[in-house]
Automatic annotation (TrEMBL):
Topological category with respect to the lipid bilayer: Multi-pass membrane protein
Protein name, entry field: DUF421 domain-containing protein
Family annotation (Gene3D superfamilies): bsu07140 like domains
UniProt domain YetF C-terminal: residue ranges: 78-146
Alphabetical keyword list: Cell membrane, Membrane, Transmembrane, Transmembrane helix
Length: 146
């Protein structure tokens, strides 16, 4: 039972730390982001299993993490406030030619990231951009001026 409790706690802690770190999609991850994710996995396994190298211990941890994921998904469907805590909300970082510097700092994003997203939408100049929104998954949506 100790392994199950540690696995549940590790799930909640890793989820919290990932939310704390910020938003990045797999396509936007720098090598340092990959290092952090791999270390999270390794450290979590060590913390959950400790000296227990048994098959039953490992499977207990695996099922606990799987059930925690199902529970979190269910809670997100049931409670909008919980979904906002776990997944966040879209954040406008550029609108009508003005940068939301506070949001940019909080997201640890640079103007170059938004300019890159605009270029990917075939917009060479920010004068063509009505708004840039960082979505919940970390992608940047560019809304073109009409």
């Amino acid at each position: 039972m100790n392994t199950v409790l540690k696995a549940a706690a590790a799930y909640i802690i890793v989820l919290f730390v990932i939310r704390l770190i910020g938003r990045r999609t797999a396509s936007q991850q720098a090598p340092i982001d990959m290092v952090v994710l791999f270390l999270f996995g390794g450290l979590s396994v060590s913390a959950v299993l400790g000296d227990d190298r048994s098959f039953v211990g490992a499977m207990s941890a695996l099922f606990t993490v799987g059930l925690m994921h199902v529970a979190v998904s269910w809670l997100k469907l049931r409670f909008v406030w919980f979904e906002r805590i776990v997944d966040g909300t879209p954040i406008v970082v550029f609108r009508d030619g003005r940068w939301n510097e506070t949001a940019m700092r909080r997201l640890r994003m640079q103007q170059a990231d938004i300019r890159t997203a605009a270029r990917q939408e075939k917009l060479d100049d920010l004068d063509q951009v009505a708004a840039a929104i960082v979505e919940r998954d970390g992608t940047v949506s560019i809304l073109e001026k009409k």
